[in-house]
């Protein structure tokens, strides 16, 4: 597709009142290569969302935000609050990757993979199945709601609410075991808090995807507001070729007039591009913040072009400066996004490989630093807390080393239940030499050993001070 220069494409300013005038958008469904691509992306994501919550490995979910145990389970890896830098790195990597992709292909995330878009299309298809095509729904909008039309409307909202409830249950299953959740709901044993949460999530999904829809993209999502910062004149965006399409003609004009050079453009002013747009914009008005680059207008326009024996591509993904296309991947800002993405990905991968499976805290008992006994021994008192973030690490054995004759008094086996409680220990030594003596606490399971350095304070040390 040859796109006219950006100076010939009218730019439409953002109108904050757009979409708030109460006009309901009846989206007309269409088919085409971009809609097939969108389904190829969205359906696996839906299957992953609804299916992943049920997958377990050795009784542990693959993905769950386990707040009571203060951990996040991610594909067999346990993350703790001590791993917040890794989680932050993942989010930075995802954000920089989004910026990188957006600078090349525009808002493809919004059009093909955003949850708001995916659920909106599901609800639109339910609406099409229950109440008919968009033109029929638009004609019947102001008609009395009774009889068969009332029954279809009830069925539509019932299906919407069912999908919303399943979504809420699945989403909640990522914060508590899904099997326990379903069992509580089936046995009417769910707590009031849980029921309230499910009701809120169900209503939120129902309102967002069924009633509000495009207003989320227009007024709630910040992405449309700062997308211009991430793009330039060589970014691919859904664009209307005004040079080829203007002035607009009519599909009813005779072929002789249509073929008259310069008399009329290829656009037949059928408005199908507007009818299929999920945000209700007219792409022919120029680049707009409300456009989510879903490609529905491209598929619809191509079908009209084929029927009227015109070349396709009147609307398509194009850059404002097509003549600079060979240099598209060699732009400083794009290379900067790529560098940030690569650095964030590498740093996160390194931190992930070297993450801690065991976190141990050793705190000296400040109320009684040491105590001497009649048999000549001297003891120091400690508080130890340990948390495990590996599925197989459930208990460990505690020992102490560093000085000859050290004796550890306390539980030999430490259970890693991540309760956050401190366990009391004391380390004793017969006839210490004096001073501050280095010692090491050793924590081991059947295969690995972790060591933490500490010290043994003796009476002699304090007498010399």
UniProtKB/TrEMBL annotation:
SUPFAM superfamilies: 4Fe-4S ferredoxins. GO terms for cellular component: plasma membrane. Keywords: 4Fe-4S, Electron transport, Iron, Iron-sulfur, Membrane, Metal-binding, Transmembrane, Transmembrane helix, Transport. GO terms for molecular function: 4 iron, 4 sulfur cluster binding; metal ion binding. Pfam families: Fer4_18 (PF13746), Fer4_5 (PF12801), FixG_C (PF11614). The chain crosses the membrane at residues 40-57, 84-105, 159-178, 190-209, 334-353. Residues 258-286 form the 4Fe-4S ferredoxin-type domain. InterPro entries: 4Fe4S_Fe-S-bd (IPR017896), 4Fe4S_Fe_S_CS (IPR017900), Cyt_c_oxidase_cbb3_FixG (IPR014116), Electron_Trans/Redox (IPR051684), FixG_C (IPR032879), Helical_ferredxn (IPR009051), Ig-like_fold (IPR013783). The keyword Iron applies. This is Cytochrome c oxidase accessory protein CcoG. It comes from Nitrincola iocasae. The lineage of its organism: Bacteria, Pseudomonadati, Pseudomonadota, Gammaproteobacteria, Oceanospirillales.
């Amino acid at each position: 597709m040859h796109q006219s220069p950006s100076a010939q494409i009218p730019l439409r300013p953002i109108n904050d009142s757009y979409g708030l005038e109460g006009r309901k958008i009846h989206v007309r469904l269409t088919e085409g290569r971009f809609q097939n691509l969108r389904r190829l992306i969205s359906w696996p994501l839906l299957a992953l969302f609804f299916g992943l919550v049920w997958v377990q490995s050795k009784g542990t979910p693959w993905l769950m935000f386990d707040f009571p145990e203060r951990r996040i389970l991610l594909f067999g890896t346990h993350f703790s609050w001590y791993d917040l830098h890794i989680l932050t790195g993942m989010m930075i990597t995802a954000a920089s990757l989004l910026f990188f992709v957006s600078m090349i292909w525009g808002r493809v995330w919004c059009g093909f993979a955003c949850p708001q878009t995916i659920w909106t299309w599901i609800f639109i298809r339910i609406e099409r199945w229950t109440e008919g095509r968009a033109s029929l729904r638009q004609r019947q909008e102001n008609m009395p709601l009774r009889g068969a039309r009332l029954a279809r409307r009830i069925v539509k909202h019932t299906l919407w609410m069912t999908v919303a409830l399943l979504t809420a249950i699945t989403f909640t299953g990522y914060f508590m075991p899904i099997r326990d959740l379903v069992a509580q709901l089936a046995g009417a044993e769910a707590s009031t808090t849980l029921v309230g949460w499910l009701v809120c999530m169900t209503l939120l999904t129902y309102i967002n995807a069924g009633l509000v829809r495009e207003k989320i993209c227009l007024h709630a999502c910040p992405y449309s507001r700062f997308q211009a910062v991430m793009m330039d004149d060589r970014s691919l965006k859904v664009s209307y070729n005004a040079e080829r399409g203007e002035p607009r003609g009519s599909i009813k004009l005779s072929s002789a007039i249509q073929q008259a050079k310069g008399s009329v453009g290829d656009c037949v002013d059928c408005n199908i591009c507007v009818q299929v747009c999920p945000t209700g914009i007219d792409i022919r008005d120029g680049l707009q913040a409300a456009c989510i680059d879903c490609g529905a207008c491209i598929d619809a326009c191509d079908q009209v072009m084929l029927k009227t024996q015109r070349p396709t591509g009147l609307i398509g993904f194009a850059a404002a400066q097509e003549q600079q296309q060979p240099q598209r991947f060699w732009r400083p800002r794009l290379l900067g996004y790529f560098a940030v993405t690569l650095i964030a990905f590498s740093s996160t991968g390194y931190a992930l490989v070297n993450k801690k499976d065991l976190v141990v805290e050793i705190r000296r008992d400040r109320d009684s630093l040491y105590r001497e006994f009649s048999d000549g021994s001297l003891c120091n008192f400690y508080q130890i807390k340990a948390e495990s973030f590996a599925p197989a690490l459930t208990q460990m054995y505690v020992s102490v080393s560093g000085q000859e004759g050290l004796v550890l008094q306390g539980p030999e086996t430490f259970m890693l239940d991540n309760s956050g409680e401190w366990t009391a220990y004391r380390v004793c030594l017969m006839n210490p030499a004096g001073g501050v003596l280095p010692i090491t606490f050793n924590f081991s399971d059947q295969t690995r050993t972790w060591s933490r350095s500490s010290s043994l304070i003796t009476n002699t040390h304090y007498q010399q001070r």
